[in-house]
Amino acid sequence: MIPESSKVMEFEESISLAVEDGARIIFIKEFIADKEDLFIKLAESLEFPDYFGYNWDAVLDLLSHFSWFDENEIIIVFPLIISPDLGDILKDISISASSRMASCFQKGVSRKKLTFLFRK
């Protein structure tokens, strides 16, 4: 788990601590040109199940539970080099998925935690 403190940690140090704590870190490194490109990169990087529907609802559903991963903490690192049209949509999806997962965590339905990082 990435520590919550007033100290600003270097990105690499934060990631190293999360890995030591058993988190799965997923880096999406390449430029994301459009939504089809995003769907493909997400499906490949996050090992989405075969039934993934390549649409926004399917992305949100799968980002909300990660039942196919053993790890309880998942950190997805996106590049900041994302097509401007996708930036707002991706942020909305990340907020919704994180909120859904946090709600399940609080209710004891799931022990998974999800963090999205957008990096330069």
Could you describe the 3D structure shown?
There is one protein chain. By secondary structure, the chain is α/β, with parallel strands linked by helices. It has one domain: Barnase, Chain D (2-Layer Sandwich). The chain is 44% helix and 15% strand. The chain is built from 4 helices and 3 strands, in the order αβααβαβ. Strands 1-2-3 form a 3-stranded parallel beta sheet. α3 (56-63) runs parallel beside α4 (84-107). The longest helix is centred in the last third of the chain and has 24 residues, at 84-107. It is globular and about 35 Å long. The chain starts with 10 loop residues before the first helix and ends with a strand. Mean pLDDT is 81; it is low at 1-7.
Short description:
The protein has 120 residues and is of the alpha/beta class. The protein is built from 4 helices and 3 strands.
Mean pLDDT: 81
Fraction of residues in H or I helices: 40-55%
Tally of DSSP β-strands: 3
The helix-strand sequence is HEHHEHE
Specify the number of helices: 4
- Total domains, how many? 1
CATH first level: Alpha Beta
CATH topology: Barnase, Chain D
- Summing up helix and strand content along with how strands pair, one would put the structural category as alpha/beta
Unreliable stretches (pLDDT < 50, length at least 5) are 1-7
| Order of strands across the main sheet | 1-2-3
- How many angstroms does the end-to-end distance come to? 22 Å
**For the CA atoms, what is the radius of gyration?**
14 Å
Largest sheet: 3 strands, parallel
